[in-house]
Structure formats: C-alpha cells, structure tokens
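Posting this for the archive.
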Amino acid sequence: MRELPRTPGFSRVVHALFNRVGQPAREVLVFGRTPDGATKVVLTADGGIRIEVEPFPGPEGVEGGFYLIPVKPGMEHARVNWLDREGNEGSRGLELLPRPAGT
C-alpha cells in the first residue's frame, strides 16, 4: 500500500467485487491505513451519504491502524478521511479513485 505525500499515514485502496467477468460490481471495498491519533474514518458522498467506522489495530510493531468500508458501487463524488478525538478532519481527504469498472 503506497503512502500518499499529502496525507501522511493515511491511504486508501478501492477494490470492486464482481459476480462474473463483465458484470457490474456488487460491492466496493474501500480500505487503507490510518495514522496514530485517528479515532474514526468517514466516507462521504453526494446525497447525504455518510459512513463512519473505527480503525482497528494492525500487526504488532506496525504504527497506526487500518480500516475497511464496504459500499455499494456508483457513489458520486465520494471521499474518505480520518477524524481525531475531537472530530476534526485529519487531512484533505481522498477521492475514491480510480472508479471501478462497471460503476
């Protein structure tokens, strides 16, 4: 998982799950790393969509945490970001790109 320079310690990967080759995605997994101090990860999208999850610890000796958010495909203008203990956004947030095929 590649670290992104504008969001140190925070990353995102988008992976679409398909029924069969060429069919639209059933579900999209958004996952990545969170920095120390992250208490929540929030995904927002058009239409007032907001999904919050708590990070979980990684393997022993690995700093920060990890998150996993399953979502339906086709969310418009979706972004993911982390929040600190006070609920402040920890970064500029990341767009859910690249957009999976079939969405």
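Strands lie at 13-18, 25-34, 40-45, 49-53, 56-57, 65-71, 79-83, 94-95. The radius of gyration is 14 Å.
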